[in-house]
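Notes to self after the Tuesday call (sharing in case useful).
The group wants a holo model before anyone commits to mutagenesis around the pocket. I volunteered. Ligand is ribavirin triphosphate. Logging inputs and output together so the record is complete.
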Amino acid sequence: MAVTRTFSIIKPDATRRNLTGAVTKMLEDAGLRVVASKRVRLSREQAEGFYAVHKERPFFGELCDFMTSGPVVVQVLEGEDAVKRNRDVMGATNPADADEGTIRKTYAEGIEANSVHGSDSDENAKIEIDYFFKPEEIVG
Ligand code: RTP
Ligand code: MG
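Result:
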């Protein structure tokens, strides 16, 4: 299996509860390596741009409110089959549907405040990484 990269966000509900380390530990324990990381406060424009694919969804406005409500930690993760590996450890979008041992089952507050984002394809991973990081900020 090839070593690839994915993009992760530790969301405001998790940073507010001081869970940056706990979430990162679960990512690392799943075989992912943090090769770039920074704590940022998303602007409205950044949040709307990042979630542009969801612009027509009824929850878009609320989602952007939530994602700008506090600091987030954006990360690039590296590992074998990183996108799938990360999605597996994140668990289902709604924590009520997430498997035991996943980040969302363990920490998420609800379907929106669900503690983490992870890219859903290699193609989107590249777009999302480029949205937040310059190549020299990523150290593999
Ligand atoms: P993500 O993009 O954050 O990794 O999550 P995902 O693929 O599991 O879920 P997606 O369908 O892409 O939705 C993006 C984020 O929008 C919020 N959401 N709220 N109120 C709702 O019904 C609802 N549905 C989704 C969640 O924060 C979700 O992660
Ligand atoms: Mg998604």
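Two things stood out.
The beta strands are 3-10, 33-40, 72-80, 116-118.
Residues 122-132 form the longest helix (11 residues).
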